[in-house]
Design goal:
binds zinc ion, 191 residues, 4-stranded mixed sheet, alpha+beta, 4 strands
Length: 191
């Protein structure tokens, strides 16, 4: 019989995403601490973020997804390693958790991230239907380290045509065909 631990039930020495088998393994669950959050999960994310830097793998960001007091997915920033500009720690953790749980919805889960999410990751948290986000470093801390999200927030406030990355609508009516197909589809899976 195993004792309850104050640490997340994961292998701490490794810096690998959890597989579903590993995600389910573990001798106990941490007490649910919704609302306040459990600092041990945030410490895990911070540790993964630091290891990601010292190993030379990627940027100083990592996140873990927790359900019922148990880590179900982890992710570190792999933008440079995987040649994927969207491979932020939060996105990787969300993908790992969704795979592990076999669901595109992470309702009932919480995300612990080493740093306040960027706009993309914040949106990903919404799309994933996460219940709550806990973060360590602030966006200001990230800016001090050279990761400044302020530009993105400024951009999103501008009209599409006035942005640094201009967005222009073309073929609006033709593009509606995809939505028409969706509305009429008997085989769609709503999400
Ligand atoms: Zn991000």
């Amino acid at each position: 019989m195993c004792k309850r631990s104050t640490k997340p039930q994961v292998q701490m020495a490794e810096n690998k995403p959890l597989t579903p088998r590993r995600a389910r393994r573990g001798c106990g669950r941490l007490a649910a601490m919704s609302g306040k959050g459990n600092p041990e999960f945030l410490r895990r994310a911070i540790r993964l973020a630091t290891e990601n830097v010292t190993s030379g793998r990627g940027g100083p960001f990592a996140a873990v997804v927790v359900r019922d007091g148990e880590i179900v997915g982890e992710g570190v920033n792999t933008v440079t390693a995987s040649l994927d500009p969207t491979a932020h720690g939060e996105v990787n953790a969300i993908r790992a958790a969704a795979r592990a749980l076999g669901s595109f919805s992470l309702a009932g889960c919480e995300l612990y991230t080493s740093c306040e999410p960027c706009p993309m990751c914040l949106a990903a948290c919404h799309w994933a239907r996460l219940d709550r986000v806990f973060y360590g470093a602030s966006a200001e801390d990230a800016a001090r380290a050279g990761f400044d999200d302020a530009l993105l927030y400024e951009e999103f406030r501008r009209e599409p045509g006035a942005r640094k990355l201009p967005a222009t609508q073309l073929l609006g009516e033709e593009a509606w065909q995809s939505f028409a197909a969706w509305l009429a589809s008997p085989v769609k899976i709503e999400y």
